[in-house]
Fold this sequence. Notes:
Blueprint: H1 14-20, E1 34-35, H2 47-59, H3 73-87, E2 96-99, H4 102-113, E3 119-124, H5 128-137, E4 140-145, H6 154-160, E5 165-171, H7 183-196, E6 199-203, E7 229-234, H8 236-239, E8 247-250, H9 253-266, H10 272-284, H11 286-311, E9 316-321, E10 324-328, H12 335-346, E11 348-349, E12 351-352, E13 367-371, H13 377-387
Parallel strand pairs: 1-11, 3-4, 3-5, 5-6, 6-7
Antiparallel strand pairs: 2-8, 7-8, 9-10, 10-13, 12-13
Helix pairs in contact: 2-10, 3-10, 4-5, 4-9, 11-13
Amino acid sequence: xxxxxxxxxxxxxxxxxxxxxxxxxxxxxxxxxxxxxxxxxxxxxxxxxxxxxxxxxxxxxxxxxxxxxxxxxxxxxxxxxxxxxxxxxxxxxxxxxxxxxxxxxxxxxxxxxxxxxxxxxxxxxxxxxxxxxxxxxxxxxxxxxxxxxxxxxxxxxxxxxxxxxxxxxxxxxxxxxxxxxxxxxxxxxxxxxxxxxxxxxxxxxxxxxxxxxxxxxxxxxxxxxxxxxxxxxxxxxxxxxxxxxxxxxxxxxxxxxxxxxxxxxxxxxxxxxxxxxxxxxxxxxxxxxxxxxxxxxxxxxxxxxxxxxxxxxxxxxxxxxxxxxxxxxxxxxxxxxxxxxxxxxxxxxxxxxxxxxxxxxxxxxxxxxxxxxxxxxxxxxxxxxxxx
Length: 388
């Protein structure tokens, strides 16, 4: 019997699959496609950042060469300084690695923790690229069902831990669910992971759009945080740098030394221009980013305020936050059939819950993810009108 290759062991990229549903479908100027399938800003970086990037291209010769595998030292230092202030803890530059996007940070993290046959606990619904990488690495996905609250239960997670379990993964604010994990819940998972000698991986890609003020958790205040915690981050959402692929991994210096082996063999170094842009953004775009956050929070409010009309038709809002609303639909068909039908019938592209679930979890057949990063308050109204 022929064995599967690493890539054959997982599914096709969901966003690419969804784009194929657009083939052969015509949209008119008075009824254009409403695309709520992908959580990535489509606008370019703000003009001042573009000018700064142009200056880098023209005047910084080092930006066109290989750089340090673990990233541009000034950016590592800036992340350490700002994160220490934001979380009230001690994070040193040697605790920070810059990666080619947050997906690479996750892949590098798993490479430092796991070998084939190990397993990792993922709350369900999960971010599909996390599942894809585990599949390709030969690492088991131990699915932790979060139920209708979309909040994982530490006791249920503990029951899933086996001698082969190497980590628990949390994403907060959550993709796809949108929910923000309470600080005490995050702390409970940290304590669980530490007590069982496994890692806690927290993906905070959407931390800049958390509705809460202050630190979303207190884990970095623990002087020994690095024995358990690995934090992941993306600059793509905050500064519209999706095409430049700049992410971060915050962990112990010893773990980053292991991650360096992986990163050196995959991309050698992160995008040099993107790293300098991220540094410039951190130092100069605080007020601008606050405005971006306010806009996203207004779109979130538009979702929650306007959802009553859909609720009257049998839809249910399970979670809403950052870039996402996660909903159940009222139709007598699975969501993976409903989603392409909505493209044809309503001119709406969104992802079905089946893309965020193991195949044996039928809950995804009633669920859909709405990614509203590029749909303003008026666009939310138009979306809901199409779905009624």
